[in-house]
Amino acid sequence: RPLGPPAAPAPLWSAVARGAWALLVGAGTMMALAGCGALGAPRVGELPRAVQPPTPEELAEYPCRHGQLEACRARCENDATSCNAAGLLYELEGGTEAQVAAAALYRKGCDDAYAPACNNLAWLYALGRGVPRDPPRSLEVFARAYAGVRMACLRGEASGCVEVAAMLQEGRGVEVNEPLASLYLAAAGVPATAEPGSPPRAW
User: Fold this and answer.
1) Which is it for the CA torsion 69, 75, 77, 83, positive or negative?
2) What pLDDT, in 10s, does the model give residues 46-66?
3) Is the Cβ–Cβ distance between 115 and 148 less than 8 Å?
4) What is the pTM of this model?
5) Which of 94, 105, 122, 200 could cysteine-pair with 141, CB 3.0–4.6 Å?
């Protein structure tokens, strides 16, 4: 039933009664708002935590995630994932020198058996960016990437299974094999009719 004053003969519903009803409704609204505030909603003017600028501690701990190129590259010495991330940051800069630097970083990451770095290096060989265009070398490096993501899938990593399926469907470093791709998608819990949709360039 619509919220409103209690039914009563019009002559008895005085201005005082209407005022009292308005006060009651207003008080209920304020209490509801106060209750919502107690749930921890951010103060007016605050950005959500996910889009606030990173703290110095976060920059130091996750330089690659926050685009700190030099700090990210420094981590490449002992971390293949940082080699790959730094390579992508160089590619985003654009220009021949940056592409050459990206290729070197991908190569180190790939030599350290990080499959996404092999995948990205293979694309550079295929496109002739930062390295001479070399389709046979590209296929060889794609094959290394395939072996790496296949191992990840066997370890139970769903993203590895999806990437294997994508490579089998595209013939990237391996012969096209749709039935086998469907099996890998099933292992990842993805319907066999779905496109894997994996990006050609991986972080």
Assistant:
1) negative
2) 666 667 788 888 888 899 999
3) yes
4) 0.68
5) 122
